[in-house]
Structure formats: structure tokens, C-alpha cells
Amino acid sequence: MQLNNNVTEFILLGLTQDPLRKKIIFAIFLFFYLGMLVGNLLIITTIKTSQALGSPMYFFLFYLSLSDTCFSTSIAPRTLVDALSKKTTISFNQCIIQVFTLHFFGCMEVFILILMAVDRYVAICKPLHYMTIMSHRVCSVLVAVAWVGSCVHSLVQIFLALSLPYCGPNEIDHYFCDLEPLLKLACADTYVINLLLVSNSGAICTVSFVMLMFSYVIILHSLRNHSAEGRRKALSTCISHIIVVILFFGPCIFIYTRPATTFPMDKMIAVFYTIGTPLLNPLIYTLRNAEVKNAMRKLWSKKLVSDNVR
């Protein structure tokens, strides 16, 4: 499907070309990436091994952490290698694969955040029917639909990228392959493609954000009928979710709702949602969630006991 494509590889210009700054970026990215891995893998392990975290909310949190891990891993390792390399090239096929994985796991995170909002709505507004509506089978089907939807979204991105010819230049002014900087290298009119990009990625981000914020307004409004203890617990959970939604969707909306123009700050904003938000998510969910913290303590205690027995 590659039309008149004379480009076999791209040069990623990265965040900077200064050798000293590249080393600083390597250290910062390594710290953030390792922190993200430890935090999210700890949540994944805790949810999988703890019987106390068997509710739908933690079922979705498991997939959120999995999406965060894969989302950052699609970008960070290559960025770390490029920060230490003099020649930062990426093949055409690898670039397209990175676009696919980036949008697949990014869209997956969007859908999981929506499912988490649905779960909180049912738990708070329909408590008597919660276990019936949000059964394990229903949750599994919803996650499967999210996987399929993410795949469709990512395939659309690939279709848009491959529908244009690339005949040079081949320098991408970014530290990873994404559709918007890639389209700038196409030797054809990309106006229609840019409109399609806004209607795809931009619309998904914006509409999802508005829906999520509206749903949490409804949820918070319904808390007035709950007891003080129930209101406190539900409020703590919802605030955590709202913080995650704002941190993730804010930068994404800024980037993907205006693909025809770029600003110098775009790459720094991309750093925030590709590595910063996945790092903060585990902290937000663990620091504000007593059940997760208790399950982690039990998991750590079991590990210490098993190590002492050996």
C-alpha cells in the first residue's frame, strides 16, 4: 500500500541535538521509565495475586496499568537508545509499527478510563444492581470491545500514513514517530488527511474527555444521598479518576485537535503524556486507595516470609 515511496528510513531529530543535553535526557527518561515500570508492574502483580482486589474497578485498573506500561514501552526504550546514539534513524516499517502501537495503547487507555467511569457510575448510582450489571462476564466483554476499538483506531492511523507518498526529506522533528510529524514529510497535499486526523484522534480525545467529566459531575452530584463514610470513600476514588483523566486528556487534546500546526512546546507536552502520566497513575491510585496499599503490604509481607523460609 506504500505509494511512490522512495524513503526507506527516517531520521528522528529528538528533543535536542546537543550531546550534553542528550545525556541529561537519557538520565531523566531512564528514571521516569524505570519508575513507571516498577509502579505499574507492582499494581498489575498486586491485583492479580490479591483476592481482596477482585471487584470490577480493579479489573479495569489492571488493564489501565497494562496499557500504561505498553504505551510508554512503545516509545521510551528507543528514545533511551537514541539519546546515546550519534545516528538516530528508524526504518520506514519500524516507524509505522511505532505509530500503530502508540495509538493502539493510547486509545486503549481512553476506553479503559471510560469503562472505569461507567463502573463508578453503576457502583454509586445503582448500588443494588452493581454486581448484576458489572459482572465478570460483562467486564470481560467490555474490555474485549475496547481492544477491538483500539485496533480499528490504530489501523485507521496506519491507513492514513500509508495513503501518502514519501519521496524526501526524511527528517522527523520529534523523538518518536507519530502521524502528524510524519505527514509533514509527505510529498502530497495532506489537508484532507489532517482533517481526518482531527476527526479521528482529536474527536476521540475531546468527546471522551467531555463525556468523562460530565459523567463524574453526575456521580459527584448523586453522592449527596449517601452516608458520610460512603461519600468520603466514593469521593476519594472519583477524585483519583478525575485527576488521571485530566492529566491524560489535557495534553492529548492540545496535540491532536490542531494537527495542521505545531508549536515548540509540542515535544515537551508529548513527554508528559507518553512517560509522565503513566508514571503518575500508579502513585495516584495507590496513595489515595487504602485497599490497594493494604494489598501491597500483604504481598510484600508474603514475599518477606517466603524469603526467610528459604
TrEMBL record:
Its main location: membrane. GO terms for cellular component: plasma membrane. Residues 39-285 form the G-protein coupled receptors family 1 profile domain. It is found in: Cell membrane; Membrane. The chain crosses the membrane at residues 24-45, 57-76, 96-118, 138-160, 201-223, 235-256, 268-287. This is Olfactory receptor. It holds the Pfam family 7tm_4. Belongs to the G-protein coupled receptor 1 family. The keyword Cell membrane applies. One of its GO terms (molecular function) is olfactory receptor activity. It is a multi-pass membrane protein.
